Amino acid sequence: MGVGSFFVDMKMSYVKQQYRAHGMKSEMVEVDDGATVIRCWVPWQQPESGVWSAGQSDKPVVLFLHDFVADGTLNWENQIGAFTKDFNVYVPDLVFFGGSSSTRSERTEAFQAECMVKMLHALEVYNEVTVVGAGYGGLVAFWMSHLYPKLVEKVLFIATGTHMSRTSQKPLLAEFDYDHVSELLLPTTVKGLRNLASVATSKRVYRLPKFVCKAVLQYFFDKQRHEKIDLLEKMVCGAQKAPPLPQLMQEKSLIIWGENDQMTSLELALKLKLHLGNGTDLVVLNKCGHFPHLENPSTFNRILSNFLNSSSSCDPAHR
């Protein structure tokens, strides 16, 4: 094991310990008769018998769906401690990320949504789920909400470009002389990783040593790279001649965006809000880029908590 891999492994080991400390366990969930395997952190309880078993309490269910970068474990590390006490929290890796994989040929957001629902059903979760989706995970949340309205009660979108077009990211790609979004989202070099970091967050990005960057590339980006490129190629949102997006049936939804998001512009946030209707609030977090749940977790967690515990969305505001 190289020095860079040691640092990355230590970081991930620490994060996983935090999940376990808050009563969660990593499970490999098989669906499609074993054709698809999804790694998911699930609530775990110890009854009086002392035998550990999947938590089936009456607490409300929250499903966190991660962005295209990294995996579920790392994306939601700042939310686990805030919500596992009052909610049954589920944190999966989307298919072809982290520990999840499939031999099926489908690659659309609807396919991901279908897999997430099958996973929840396999874990005996059948209704009244709040889905929190960031970026690409928000696209999956959108299709879950449309295709399974009886399952999804509420949905929160974070920097979710449902109304992207084929030209939406051309200026950003041109900045780095890229021809395709996969070059930005799936870097192969240290320079490419730093390019991604520079536009993904509004915080100052310190220059990690090259050996750490190489380990990050190997751990998060090299695995199932071909399948991830296929996911980008076959996305419905933003595809040429894509049909109009369906309307959602959920009464409660919320949008959170970073004021300085360079990857999905605030214009896309306004288009999503218009599409979802007057019952949906838009909260824009100051001094945040594409990952407000990572860049300002305390404010994000407070807004999410209010959304989860209230009968209506929180008031729109800049925070």
Summarize the topology:
Blueprint (H helix, E strand, L loop, with lengths): L2 H19 L2 E8 L4 E10 L7 E2 L6 E5 L6 H4 L4 H4 L4 E5 L8 E2 L6 H14 L6 E6 L1 H12 L4 E7 L11 H6 L5 H5 L4 H11 L9 H12 L3 H9 L18 E7 L7 H11 L3 E6 L6 H4 L1 H13 L7 E2 L1
Parallel strand pairs: 4-5, 4-7, 7-8, 8-9, 9-10, 10-11
Antiparallel strand pairs: 1-2, 2-3, 2-5, 2-6
Pfam family, one: Abhydrolase_1
Protein name: AB hydrolase-1 domain-containing protein
Organism: Ceratodon purpureus
Counting DSSP H or I runs of 4 or more residues, the number of helices is 13
**Full CATH superfamily name:** Alpha/Beta hydrolase fold, catalytic domain
Q: Could you say which overall geometry the principal axes of the C-alpha atoms support?
A: globular
Helix/strand class: alpha/beta
Mean pLDDT: 91
Distance between the termini: 43 Å
Per CATH, the architecture is 3-Layer(aba) Sandwich
Helix content: 25-40%
Beta strands, count:
11
CATH overall fold name: Rossmann fold
Strand content: 15-25%
- String of helices and strands: HEEEEHHEEHEHEHHHHHEHEHHE
CATH class: Alpha Beta
Protein name: AB hydrolase-1 domain-containing protein
Organism: Ceratodon purpureus (Fire moss)
Pfam families: Abhydrolase_1 (PF00561)
Domain AB hydrolase-1: 60-297
